[in-house]
Amino acid sequence: MIAPAKEILVIGLGLIGSSIAKAAKNKGLIVNGYDKNESSTKEALNKNIIDASFETLDEINDKELAKKVDIVIVAVSPKATQRVISEIKNLWNTAITITDTSSVKNHLNFDSPTNIIFSHPIAGSDKSGISGVDDQLFINKKTIICNPYQVDESHLSKLRNFWEHALSMRVEEMSVKDHDLMFAMTSHLPHLISYALIDSIRLSEKDPSDNAGGGLKEFIRLSGSNPEMWKDIFELNEKNIIKSLASFQLSINNLLELITKIKEIPATFSHSDLLKSELDEIKKYKEDTF
């Protein structure tokens, strides 16, 4: 049986990183932290989010760290994830398990490491930064694990155990390709649509104020997410988002034709039949276009 992690290092103490650190510390793990913003590191220490800190990535990039730290979690923006993991190369192929938290993976390319596994804890908030720390953020949520380098089972078991027991999450394994397409449809596209919807209201020069129902408020919440992170995601998962957006556009066009009576609404309205027809059309569009 693989021993559970006892000590971790979180690189990046924004909302996700600090929330992981706090939740793990609450479960009795020793938590080290590092953030390029020195004030975030100091705040994490003062608020008892972490036990100890590092001042630089150079200080972290030391094979001796493998003697005490079990898992390194890189919780920075998607583009920065590639750079940070590359800058701690002395920790590759050691007993430390290295993982990340990015919601897009196709850009993460490393030279056959034996201890790097990708993770995506599916949890978030419209808040950002360490001020939004929430040790309950991950409870009963799901983490996706991608294992493109087919690392040793000991690393996989250690990481799975961490997400399941230290953070009370459910774990599912998925390929990088399937992960990026799935989250283009279920996460990245909804955020893109939220920006478009809020922008359309802005252009109408109408103020919804107290007339905003629960549905619109959720779109407003989504559109308020960290713009730097989402800019990275839209760029890095561009092809999958374009496919998803094309599918959505076809659906909008179909609804427009139904509402304007260009298409006839069947006497017995069957959403499943309509959906099947729409999916067939989308599938053909994708095959012809991509």
What fraction of residues sit in β-strands? 5-15%
List low-confidence stretches.
Answer: 285-290
- Tally the structural domains: 2
Q: Could you state the CATH homologous superfamily of the largest domain?
A: NAD(P)-binding Rossmann-like Domain
Helix content: 40-55%
Q: List the strand order in the largest sheet.
A: 3-2-1-4-5
The end-to-end distance, rounded to whole angstroms, is 46 Å
Provide a short characterization of the protein structure.
This protein has 290 residues and is of the alpha/beta class. Helices cover 48% and strands 11% of the residues. Strand 2, helix 2 and strand 3 (52-53) form a beta-alpha-beta unit.
List the helices and strands and how they pair.
Blueprint: E1 7-11, H1 15-26, E2 30-34, H2 38-46, E3 52-53, H3 57-60, E4 71-74, H4 78-87, E5 97-100, E6 118-121, E7 142-146, H5 153-166, E8 170-173, H6 176-203, H7 214-223, H8 227-236, H9 238-259, H10 271-289
Parallel strand pairs: 1-2, 1-4, 2-3, 4-5, 7-8
Antiparallel strand pairs: 6-7
Helix pairs in contact: 6-7, 6-9, 9-10
Give an overview in words.
With 290 residues, the chain is α/β, with parallel strands linked by helices. The strands form two sheets. The protein has a five-stranded parallel β-sheet with strand order 3-2-1-4-5. A three-stranded mixed β-sheet has the order 6-7-8, with helices on one face. It is globular, with a radius of gyration of 22 Å. The N and C termini lie far apart (46 Å). It folds into two domains: 7-174, 3-Layer(aba) Sandwich (Rossmann fold); 178-289, 6-phosphogluconate dehydrogenase C-terminal like domain (6-phosphogluconate dehydrogenase C-terminal fold, Orthogonal Bundle), CATH 1.10.3660.10. The chain contains ten helices and eight strands. Helix 6 (176-203) packs across helix 9 (238-259) and helix 9 packs across helix 10.
